[in-house]
Amino acid sequence: MTVEPGRIRVLNDAPPDEKGRYVLYLLQQANRAHFNPALELAVREANRLGLPVVACFGLLDGSNGFPEANARHYAFLLQGLSDAANGLKTRGIGFVMRKCSPAEIAIDLAKQAALLVLDRGYLAIQKGWYEEIGKRVKTRIVQVEGDVVVPLEIASSRHEFAARTLRPKINKQLDGFLNPLRVVHVKHSADKLGLSSTIDISDPDAVLASMTLDRSVPPVKRFKGGETEARRRLKAFLSGPFAHYGDTRGKPEAGAASHMSPYLHFGQISPVEIVLAARAAKASDDDKQAFVEEVVVRRELAMNHVFFTAHYDSYDHAIPQWARDTLAEKAKDERPHLYTDEQLANGETHDAGWNTAMKEMRETGFMHNHLRMYWGKKVLEWSNSPKDGFERTLRLNNRFFLDGRDPNSFTNVGWVYGLHDRPWARRPIFGTVRYQSENSLRKFDLNAYTRDVERLCREEAKA
Description:
About 50% of the residues lie in helices and about 5% in strands. By secondary structure, it is of the alpha/beta class. The chain starts with 7 loop residues before the first strand and ends with a helix.
């Protein structure tokens, strides 16, 4: 199937430039050469106009780097871009990469383009790029949604209160956007255009070494970036742990996680591709429904939140009033344990289970969802004030998690403080915001999980 019309938005309705040498695609959110609606639309339009396709990527570096990104994030990103570049070359699509903002490279290369195609992300910095491009590019601009299953505005026109309010809206539209994407044959190769990159992405390690960035958080070996690796992991998950996903997904020691989150964050795999593969896998309907709930409903609730919340990284704007009020009422409650940022980052608390989860996060860039909730609630409990806790939780999340700085990051941290939730029984420190006690660690085998983390960290240290 070709791209669904509901995914397509025309940002500049000018006709294609008759003097254009190519159709330009700003590969920014969907960093992959396959199952990419924006790319397939660019190829389709290029074939219609008798032109080649050029994809481009602007790599933020130095003082203009992506906010809070460090060597861990950039290493994974660059591995993915190297994989995508190979895929583009195989298809006859040009690829240009420079150290500049995505807006800058798109605006420059659009001067010779008949048409500019954008993919779509929802963070404030991404919206800023699209706005700048819209103001300065005069040729036709088409934006194609490929990062969610149901396009955001089609799913909902407002900020949703919770998953239960978005779920029926998503489910009503779901089947209409769960379609295989046909690969469009490239009729005109970009090889003879003479465009060249200032970055040789064939050696991502060398590119990383040349960058000016925060290296205090090193790359991890547990996860390798790229759409090839994403599909390998998805296949392994669906042929193994997925058969018992509904029963084991809440047990960190069970190895039932798909590990798709980093690949989704960096646009290295399509959520539609994931859901279609899950639906075709051998598993019960309950297992499939539980997985789709996570990949679609919960993830797209996060997109809805950052899209409709101007300052989603601010405690005063992102957290609902009822939650801020009840946390303020309990702000002076005695806190038996208070820890510094350094103590938290190093896992130096009285809570052995929390320390183990923090170690997995710090050393490997991942933590199971069940533990992420517990981890966040404890940071709230161990901070001087709710606002301080929110800011610290977000800092730690975005610094160490491979999928940090994602809409899911801002939304999940917000959930710790009452976002997308309701009042619960009143407690010290938390007021009526949901509390999570150490008893939640008894729902799984903590000793087995600890052994797994120790093994993973040993492997990481040897790599």
